[in-house]
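Recall that a protein's primary structure is simply its ordered list of amino acids. Everything else, from secondary elements to tertiary packing, is in principle encoded there. The following example makes that idea concrete.
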Amino acid sequence: QVQLQESGPGLVKPSQTLSLTCTVSGGSITTNMKYWSWIRQPPGKGLEWMGTISASGNTYYHPSLKSRASISRDTSKNQFTLQLSSVTPEDTAVYYCARASVLLLKPWVSKSDYGYWGQGTQVTVSS
C-alpha cells in the first residue's frame, strides 16, 4: 500500500520561501509511469494542481506558478520536495502530495484524479 506524508512548517512569513517534503512509503518514486504531484486547496476553493515530477525526474508546473515553484526529489530517501518562493497570504492553503498513473496537467483537479493522497498539511502565510 502506497502512503504519502507531507511535512514542513505550518507558518511562513510573506516574501519567504515555503518548503514542503513528501515522504513516500510502500512504493518507489522512480517506478515507471508514476507521477508525483503537489496540490493545494485555499480556503473556500477547489483543489489546485501546482506541479508534478515524473518517475524519470521531469518536472511540470502550473503556468501561474512556474516562476515561483520548484519540485525536486531525493531518490535515496524516496522523497520529493516543493519549494514556493515569494509567498503571500494568497498562498495560504492545505497542501497535499499525491500520486497518479497518468500525467495530469489540468489546473483544477478532483480527489478521484489521483490514486493516492497524503493527509494534507495546513500552511498559513502571515507576518
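The chain has no helices and twelve strands. The first strand starts at residue 3 and ends at 7.
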